[in-house]
Amino acid sequence: MKKQLITSALPYVNNVPHLGNIIGSVLSADVYARFNRLRHNETLFICGTDEYGTTTEIKACQEGVSPQELCNKYHALHLAIYEWFNISFDYFGRTSTSMQTHIAGNIFMELYNNDHLFSVETNQLYSVTSDRFLADRYVRGTCPKCYFDAANGDQCEHCGSLLESTELIDPICILTNTHPVLKQTKHIYLNLPVLQDTLFSYFKRVSSYGNWSNNAIQITNSWLKEKLKSRAITRDLVWGTPVPKNIEGYEKKTLYVWFDAPIGYISITANFTNDWKSWWQNPKNVNLTCFMGKDNVPFHTIMFPASLIGTNTSWTLPTSIIATEYISFENKKFSKSKNIGIFGDDVIKSGIPADVWRYYLLSIRPESSDSTFKLSDFQAKNNSDLVNNLGNFVNRVITFLNANYDAATPSEINCTIPQSVLVISIKLQNKLKLIVNLLNKCQLKKALNEVLHISALGNKFLQETQPFLLIKSTNENDKKICDCIMSTSIGIVYVLSLTLEPFLPSTSVKILNMLNLQHSILNLTDKFIEKTITPYRLLPPCHKLSGVKCLLFQRISNNEITNLSFVGS
Ligand code: ZN
């Protein structure tokens, strides 16, 4: 089995992640990483903050701190949110490190030595006052299309036109409030047209055997159908990865973030382990699965692989691209400035456990179409799926064994296995096979739905077999059948603790605690799935439970929903 390298798109450091960001990348990747660990695949799950760029520089300037200080503050904030959500990164790093400079510099030099880079002279706005060329975002002026007098250097907010800062009428540098001048400068471009054919055959090959969401295939196809254009990989920016020192005339320039940021996956891994090449320079033995929102697809399927293919090194390229569609909040676009949506920091203060948020986000994951977060639906799904279905089943089984079997599993089975048990055993094993199959294909929402089907089957099984009547029977055989039914039921509870682990890890641990079992025994290997055909033998006879009964979930009241809804109004 190949090693599994899993990445989730690097969140931009200045933004507090909202629920849509969380389900789009980190939470989805977390489920897949946890699943692979349960399959006993060698797994590495990497992410980190994307820290360079104009936005950071501007914000640091506004807050009166250095870009590094700003990044330190926000990196800690991201980390706290993901820890609260129980995201099981092997390492959550950052892009502003010397390792990034080293690795990005090497990739740049290999591309340069292979003649895939060339320089282009252009005229760009230059601030005499601050002695620097100005990135588009540093310039404001009058829009040449609609004459709006405060258009940004890259786009006019009034008419929506995409602009070059040199097109602005009467441009002003927003850093110094002075008029910049036009001055000749040069930038280095990556020659994408010469890499197009190799890129196309790479895409055809991996998309035929990897997991590619439909949107990722469509977006990549539409890029490759057009002739690719060369793109600048340097910028006039201080806060970025420096251009290698031996390239003359680029001392004040840094690498463009679209080229630089994906290399962050590699440098973050290298900051985590000296053995990073066994992951990133080992394409034969590593599957690389990248999770992201769909706006990030071209960077991962065109720019990033092209940058690596053009070197002399055999890099591990993405084998699977899993991109989500858009998610909105009550049918409106998430926006921190307009106070629309729930953000990572709000969730921590909500008093509602992380697993409930994880459940709802995964159950509305925009897997193949857009979806929306609705507070009323969040409440309804908690109260029906988690409390009435899942929590209720586990609770019924544990309570029954605590009360009637002195908090232990029944003794050795000593009767003919009843038809009802045979039927549910087959259904259970089929569900497990289906769940593994869906998770292998990264169909997380469907897989979670099947897990909930298991507890629904369990509830129905208790309803039909009525152990609460059998236990009171004076007939010895009835008691033996009751033993068999309860051994089966506790086996199903155990299977739930296993299948819930990738989705609701804290709930899985709570169930294991009641079962008096350690997390380390969980595995979702084919060998284990074979054993589930006799669920009544999954736990040994007379195994002592912890005797504790903890409520897995609590109802969410209308009041709690009202308290949450102020956030999104
Ligand atoms: Zn305009």
Q: What can be said about the biggest beta sheet?
A: 5 strands, parallel
In this entry the ligands are:
zinc ion
The beta-strand count equals 16
Give the termini separation: 49 Å
Strand content: 5-15%
Which structural class best describes the helix and strand composition? alpha/beta
Q: Which regions are unreliable across 5 or more consecutive residues at pLDDT < 50?
A: none
Rounded mean pLDDT is 95
Oligomer: single chain
Query: Considering DSSP H and I runs of 4 or more, what fraction of the residues is helical?
Result: 40-55%
What is the approximate shape? Answer: elongated
Strand order of the largest sheet: 3-2-1-13-14
Structural notes for this entry:
The protein has 569 residues and is of the alpha/beta class. Helix content is 48%, strand content 13%. The protein has a five-stranded parallel β-sheet, with helices on both faces. A four-stranded antiparallel β-sheet has the order 5-4-9-10. The chain has a three-stranded antiparallel β-sheet with strand order 7-6-8, with no helix packed on it. Strand 13 (286-293), helix 9 (297-309) and strand 14 (320-324) form a beta-alpha-beta unit. The radius of gyration is 28 Å and the shape is elongated. The two termini are 49 Å apart. The mean pLDDT is 95.
What's a quick, concise take on this entry?
The protein has helices at 19-38, 54-63, 67-84, 98-113, 192-209, 214-225, 257-272, 277-280, 297-309, 344-349, 354-363, 375-404, 419-440, 444-465, 467-470, 476-500, 505-515, 526-531, 558-568; strands spanning 3-8, 43-49, 91-94, 117-127, 132-133, 139-142, 151-152, 169-173, 181-190, 231-232, 234-235, 254-255, 286-293, 320-324, 327-329, 371-373. It has 19 helices and 16 strands.
